[in-house]
Amino acid sequence: MILVDTSIWIEYLRNRPPYKQILGRHLEIGDIVTTGAIFGELLQGARSQKEADGLVAYFNALPQVETGNDLWLEAGLMSHSVKALSRGIGLIDISLIATARRAGARIWSKDKNILSLLKTEEKFHAKK
């Protein structure tokens, strides 16, 4: 399973190679999962109602990782332990890491802050 971060979704939605092709292939295979936090971030940047509706449709069509309310506590503890706030890493990014770890998913991201906290085996390395 691959949890695709907002940074990759943006590239995909803008039809930018190689993200469009690689993510498209993994969507067809069915190994992409998501969470509300990712699509919440995408919806913040929606430029029209049509765009927002399209994002909601994508979200509803994808398998979603169950997070539960205790995820935020886990993310807060993780953030505290790695001093994430002082490193400029927000709680949503930390929650994505906690979510992926719970689900046994790898994270595909361009965000250097997120990547800096992941072990090699937790990162998705896209092959063109």
Verbal overview:
The chain has 128 residues and is mainly α. The chain has a domain at 2-66 and 104-122: 3-Layer(aba) Sandwich (Rossmann fold), CATH 3.40.50.1010. It has helices spanning 6-13, 19-29, 36-44, 49-61, 70-82, 91-103, 112-116, and strands at 2-4, 32-33, 106-108. A 3-stranded parallel sheet has the order 2-1-3. Helix 1 (6-13) crosses helix 2 (19-29), helix 3 (36-44) runs antiparallel to helix 4 and helix 5 crosses helix 6 (91-103). The longest helix is centred in the middle third of the chain and has 13 residues, at 49-61. The two termini are 18 Å apart. The relative contact order is 0.19. The model has no long low-confidence stretch (mean pLDDT 94).
What tags apply to this protein structure?
128 residues; mainly alpha; Rossmann fold; three-stranded parallel beta sheet; 7 helices
Strand order of the largest sheet: 2-1-3
Distance between the termini: 18 Å
Number-wise, the strands total 3
Give the DSSP E fraction (strand runs of 2 or more residues).
5-15%
Q: Quickly name the level 1 CATH class of the domain at 2-66 and 104-122.
A: Alpha Beta
Number of helices: 7
**Over the alpha carbons, how many angstroms does the gyration radius reach?**
14 Å
In CATH, the architecture of the domain at 2-66 and 104-122 is 3-Layer(aba) Sandwich
Please provide the ordered H/E string of secondary-structure elements.
EHHEHHHHEH
Residues in helix, %: 55-70%
> How many strands, which pairing sense, and closed or not: the largest β-sheet?
3 strands, parallel
CATH topology of the domain at 2-66 and 104-122, by name, is Rossmann fold
Give the CATH H-level superfamily of the domain at 2-66 and 104-122: 5'-nuclease
Which structural class is indicated by helix and strand composition? mainly alpha
Shape: globular
Which regions have little confidence, pLDDT < 50, spanning 5+ residues? none
